[in-house]
Each structure stands twice: as C-alpha cells, then as structure tokens.
Amino acid sequence: QICTNPEDLDLGVAMMDGYAGWAPGRDKDTQFIAMETRWSGIRITPRITLGGTFDAVIKRPDGLWILDFKTTKYSVTSWTFRDLQASAYVYAARQMYGPEVRGLIFRFLLKKAPLTYKDLILKNGSVTQRKNLKSMTTYAEYHRALAVATLKELASNDFIFA
C-alpha cells in the first residue's frame, strides 16, 4: 500500500533519518545475513505449523539473532518479555539456522520525528538533561547541540579567538 498523506510521508522520512543517525553506533559489529525472510511450515504440533517473516537475521560477536522492527508512539516495552511472536520466531529460527540463534531483538522506531539540536537547547542556552534523550534524538543532534551551546556561551563571554 502506497502512502499518499504528506504528513505521514514527512513523519516516515523523519523517522528513517533519525534511525540512520542512531543505527551506525549500535550496529557497527552487526552483519546483516538476510532481510525480509519469509518462512512457513515450521511444525510445532502434528496439526499446527508456523509461518511468518523475519525482518532481519543478523550476526553479532555473540551469535545469530532475529531482528524485528516495531513502530510505536510510546517507549513502553515491558510487554516484549511475554510476547508470543518472539517465542515463535526464536523457535522457528532455531529450526532453520540451528541452536546458535540466541534470541530476538526488538528494534523500536518511535512514530515521532527525532528532536533536532535546536529543540535540545533551552532558553537559557544550556542543553537539556532529560533522562529519556536516547529515545528522543540522535547522537549527532545531541553532539551538535552541545557544540552550538558551547560556542554561544564562549561568544557571549567576550572570549578573544586568535
């Protein structure tokens, strides 16, 4: 299905830009083995078989993992420990790839554009210290905010640069 709503398109682009700024620091030791892998016919009882699609199969230094992307408006993720999909996907992945599959990683994408460096600088010129910043912005935007705030502070104190 093709999205035609301009606001949804803008949000999607902002989410992907935010992810692109966030992921390199997290995925530096990750090798993507397969993307969008459809599977079926994994038997769990004589009458019940499983089927689904892995968003990604990844290899990290500690083994193989299934990576599952979720979009959400909230960062509450406590339900993941009891998620039937996670258990079924890990079972299926171990049938397909062997016992070296360690588990499933949920990667949550907030349905919200990440805060820009301008959003992070408070009226008094300092950078916000909110506890949940990791889920609200990217490292690049946070570091840019620190640099801009520092330069503004230096400029306001009449420092002479030679």
Automatic annotation (TrEMBL):
**Per the record, a Pfam family?**
PDDEXK_1
Q: Which residues form the signal peptide?
A: none
- Ranges for domain PD-(D/E)XK endonuclease-like come to 17-145
Q: What is the official name of this protein in its record?
A: PD-(D/E)XK endonuclease-like domain-containing protein
Query: Which organism does this sequence originate in?
Result: marine sediment metagenome
| Lineage, highest ranks first | unclassified sequences, metagenomes, ecological metagenomes
